[in-house]
Amino acid sequence: MPYITGKNYDAKKSLVTFFLVLCSVSFIACVQKQSTTPSSPKFTRLLDSADNLYANNRARTLHLLDSAKTATKNSDVVDVFRYYSFLYYINYRGKKNPGKAMLYADSMLSTIESTHNEKKYAKLYGVASFAKGDALFINNKFQAAYQLYYKGNLIGKNYVDNCTIGDYSYRMGMIMYRQEHFALAASHFKQSFIENASCGVGFLSYYRGQELLDNAALSYNKAGIRDSAELYFKNALSYINASARKYPEKSEVIEAARGVVYGNLADLYLASKEFNKAENLLKKSIQINLKKGYENKDAQLTELKLARLYADLYNTKALIALLKNIRAQLDTLKNSEAEADWNHLMAEYYQNEKEPEKAITYLFKYEAIKDSLTTATIKIKESNVNQQFKDFENQSTINTLKSDNQTQHTYLIITLAFALMALAIVFLVLYNWRRSKQNVALLSELNRTVNEQKRQLETSLLELEYSSKEKDRILRAVSHDLRNPIGGIASLTTLLLVEQGLDNEQIELLKLIQETADNSLELINEILEATGVLTSSIITRQYVDINMLLSHSVDLLRFKAAEKNQKIMLEVLDKPEELYISREKIWRVLSNLISNAIKFSPQGSVIGVKLSVEDDKIKIAVKDQGIGIPADIKDQVFNMFTEAKRPGTAGEKSFGLGLSISKQITESHNGEIWFESTPGEGTTFYVRLKKLMA
């Protein structure tokens, strides 16, 4: 059985080829699909009968194999391979004739090699390599065995067969376990479990999976990694239980596997001194595997674990009764490892019973058996497996190079080509270096030209800035000079309108003059405001309560909104906030935005004004229900003297300066101003200022 079991485990029996040991020679069913030639029906029928009879009637099985021998000449490669593998199994499994098992393994290899088509039968080729490696291993020919294992691994890699590579990982895990590299063994078993997924869906793959999980758990337990060991033991049991119902015809084999895991899990609880758990699991394992046809040898080893527990707990009565039962079993079913442990426990028992003569007798027997068991283990430990596999890999590389002169020739040509390319690259580097010197001189000249143009542009910019300031000065002077006469015209018109005796036409003309004068004064005021913002570089700031400033602005404009039957809904902050700003200029921004909302909103609409906090900033939102801003003029809204100006909903004039002034004031406070608008639905203007800007 391919499990690691027992206190002093004899790993030789665990290196049995998995496909052979698992369900006698039925392992070959997993690769029969490779056959493309028809098999001999008689030969196949005889092998199937032998396969089914082997467990209960080995004599009849051998007779059927003798009958099948005469049909091998006319049989398919897979059937011939199956025939030799069956004979290999019989000689290997019982260890009756390891030398003969090796001969049959050679026949398995030659059957595939004679086809000269190893690629077609790659899986069988890997199985044969591992089979011969196992036969060499039990004969303590470790280096030769390792070479066959490496060959099987190479076959798996060359033909991208992860299932075959998984068999190699499995054997590496077994070897590492024997050498007491337990953590490394666990990693190999886990890797093999992953690779086993490539072996297809079926009982063989399922059975191997639970075995690998159990072996990984045992390795972790030996390495002292208890938590991982317990996890993998439980995973093994879950894995067994998950698919057990799929294979009712294999229920006894599955139950035996479950019993093995119980016994191994008990080791973990023994180490952690959880004796009740350990005893229950040991008894469950023994009850399962003492049945005929089950894992009787594993049951013997598990009984010895239970006996060890009784000895440690000084339960002398239970101990001697159990040892007597084990003795009767060992007389029928030989088990050298169990024999060694039994003698050791008997020696301890008689020593505790103050009978030193009997104790010494059993101790001598224990030492004699133990010496024979440890000889092979010592040889394995002395071999450097990793180095040997590295040597095999190096030798494989050397052989490949020797057998492929064309490859060497190709490498030489490639090397020469690279040399020529290198020379060409050197030539190009030198050529480009010379060109680069010329380019540097040209770039230097261009740089001087660019610098001269930059200087000229800076001069032009200064002149333009001077011209702009001069324009603002003239504009401010003209506006100021026009303000008084136009203001006088507006005042005189107002006085004339209150005079009596004017006819309707005269009144209409006077109102037109008054409206024109008022609009002109408003334009002059905005021009003076705009030029004042542009020319003023110093802003007088103070701490201002933004709630109060906004409330004051809204209150002043409620009367203007009432003229159009509009309402202004104000929402201020719950907690007052102070901003370090120019009260007058920010008031101007707020008034401009609210005035615009009134101007461009229809009669009876609602204008929303809201304050909110965004991290370390205050956001002011003014939302109207007006005509909105079309997409084609959105990028012109904040320009001075913009072409985007439009009359209000009641015909109010718009000069296009208010938003430009608001943007300049906001940006001079390191703030932001923007808007969101949908034509026909309204516009929302936003202003964002830092809380404290001192």
TrEMBL record:
The chain crosses the membrane at residues 411-433. InterPro entries: HATPase_C_sf, HATPase_dom, His_kinase_dom, HisK_dim/P_dom, HisK_dim/P_sf, Sig_transdc_His_kin-like_C, TPR-like_helical_dom_sf. Residues 477-693 form the Histidine kinase domain. PROSITE patterns: HIS_KIN, PROKAR_LIPOPROTEIN. One of its GO terms (molecular function) is phosphorelay sensor kinase activity. It comes from Mucilaginibacter paludis DSM 18603. Its EC number is 2.7.13.3. It comes from the Bacteria. Pfam families: HATPase_c, HisKA. Keywords: Kinase, Membrane, Phosphoprotein, Signal, Transferase, Transmembrane, Transmembrane helix. This is histidine kinase. One of its GO terms (cellular component) is plasma membrane. SMART domains: HATPase_c, HisKA. Residues 1-29 form the signal peptide. It catalyses: ATP + protein L-histidine = ADP + protein N-phospho-L-histidine.
